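Please, is this right?
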Amino acid sequence: MAVSTAGMVARQRFGGALTQLRLAARTADGATVKQQDAGKAIKRKGPDRVSRLERGDAWPEPWELDRLLKLYSADVETSVRLRTMLEEGQAISSSWWQSFQNDFPESLIEFVAYEDAATKIVTCAGNVVPGLLQRSAYAHAITKHLTKSTATAPLVERSVELRTNRRRIFEKANRPAVEAIIGEAALRQQVGGRSVMLEQLDGLLTDAEDHGVTFRVIMFEAGATLTYFFHLLEFGGSNETPVAAFDAMTGMTFRKSTREVRGVKGFVEASRDLALSPEDSLEMIRTIRKEMSRD
């Protein structure tokens, strides 16, 4: 793949944050700062360079960012955040997911990059444990059975490896807040057999205790259930728009506009209303685990 998807995501996030900062800034006479004005601040005759930076087509030089931050009258917190985004984004070429780019759809790698950058993740699945929370035996069993006519054995192993590596977010100093809304079916379906499923249920309880994952289980008795497998990702910057990602057979599809994300947030809230409380959800997981261990 010629273009680093992860790098592209980082540049786009940075460009979006830079755009929002410019739009919020004002000139001495109270007017919005235009790209042309920003171009002059970084010794350019026109707005082309600023336009490229805001689209995420390029990274600014450190001195360019310094001048733009001064022009926009950015406060200390905003300046630190933008400089950190620049440093981390430029170093992203060494990110672990780069080695998977030739094996999986570009949209999936883009999703992994978003997931790694998120400060809050809501993952929703009706009848399967979400990929981020799958243990390797469960991931191997479900992938092997569902892709047996389309994926080679090595690709199945790579898929499991990718999901395992996604769990690195739990090792970060500032790990994201993760919430999983799942259907009762995801807990009772014995994917890979009883021993595999018991290990998976134990893994969910460990994620709740050690990593602060919040679970909400929609019981069979609820008036409705989840009909989509999707994720809502939020980021640290106050001006950064959340991203909704939907699982598809050939990769991921994204919803990024304010209107689309608002609709997904409404769906999340409705799903929460259907589900048990986090405390009761954990008790449900423990109960199902006890029942399954006795079978």
Observations:
- The mean pLDDT is 91.
- The beta strands are 120-125, 177-183, 214-218, 230-234, 243-248, 251-255.
